[in-house]
Amino acid sequence: MQITAKMVSELRERTGAGMMDCKKALNEANGDMDKAIEILREKGLAAAAKKAGRVAAEGLVETYISEDGKRGAIIELNCETDFVAKNADFAELAKNIAKHAAYSNANSVEELLEEKFIVDNNVIVKDAITALIAKLGENMTFRRFERFVAEEGVISDYIHGGGRIAVMVQLKGGNEAVLKEVAKELALQIAAANPLYLNKEDVPADVIEKEKEIYRQQALNEGKPEKVVEKMVEGRLQKYYKEVCLIEQLWIRDQDLTIRKYLENKSKEAGNEITVVKFARFEKGEGIEKKEENFAEEVMKQVKM
Q1: What does 214-254 look like in DSSP terms, one character per residue?
Q2: Is 141:77 a contact under the CB 8 Å cutoff?
Q3: According to the model, what pLDDT value does residue 53 have?
Q4: Are the CB atoms for 3 and 26 separated by under 8 Å?
Q5: What are the CA-CA distances from residue 119 to residues 92, 108, 114, 139, 182 (Å)?
Q6: pLDDT mean values, one per 10 residues, the chain (305 residues)
């Protein structure tokens, strides 16, 4: 398979490895991006790959929480250009879809698109999007949503960068004042530190095994004897948990505390155990690649890399 400059550039962005190392890894992996990432990590040339590829799609991520605080939703609505993303009608549509998602019974985007729109029962959600596409002359996609329902506790949200990153978190336990304070802190934590899971138990077994195999190969490549390899693997796995699990992460406001310890301290203050029920973090366009002219790619083509 021909290795293109664009593939090398994407691998470099996802791993932070050097340009030539990325090209060699892609050649060795016959163009398989995930395999190339593994090769780089096994050689100790890259940290854990970023969750998603290059963030490129335009649009907005948006949240909604009901007045009683019992329902919420986080959504992503995409468009083709930044110009439309900043359009007032597009922003209003995103807000209304987030509100609709909070009260919807749909289990998928496809189901939600066919429901009567909460702000206008004369149209379905899909038709409301189509109407705005016709008005603004640009394609739009309702990409994803996650609904939050809290019979007890609180739901909190946070939007960063004018609709680039959105977070929603649900907590229970403790008194409401403390819960709201903690929920806001955790929303900021999630936005900044981008945890993939709530705790160790949520990490899929196949992900753990894949990480272990990479760490094992790293240790062997470093020339470590077999008897210490497993200890090194376990040590690096614990470090991985601290990076990807919210409860295990260091609190961004106080690096002497993990989120687990922070929650324990606030639980004592509240006189009741505070528990994270769930969270979601949407980043605009994550994992979507937008076709565009790339100056760096053109330069690399010129030097016939």
Answers
A1: HHHHHHHHTT--HHHHHHHHHHHHHHHHHHHBGGGSEETTE
A2: yes
A3: 42
A4: yes
A5: 11, 20, 14, 22, 32
A6: 86 83 92 90 70 59 95 95 93 97 96 95 94 90 95 94 93 89 96 95 92 87 82 90 95 95 94 94 81 44 43
Could you check whether 1-54+290-305 and 58-190+278-283 share the same CATH topology?
no
So what CATH class is 58-190+278-283? alpha beta
Structure confidence at residue 83 (pLDDT): 92
**Using CA atoms, how far apart are residues 234 and 203, in angstroms rounded to an integer?**
15
- Check residue 88 and give its pLDDT: 96
- Rounded Cα gap, residues 65 and 69, in angstroms: 6
d(CA 177, CA 40): 47
Domains of the chain, by residue range, sit at 1-54+290-305, 58-190+278-283
As a CATH number, domain 1-54+290-305 is 1.10.8.10
Q: Report the half-sphere exposure of 94 (CA within 13 A, side-chain side).
A: 29
Q: Which two tokens stand for residue 109?
A: 């985007």
CA–CA gap between residue 216 and residue 225 (Å, rounded):
11
Quick check: pTM over 0.85?
Answer: no
Q: Which pLDDT belongs to residue 138?
A: 86
Rounded to 5 degrees, φ, ψ at 78 are: -105, 155
Which amino acid, one-letter code, is at 53? G
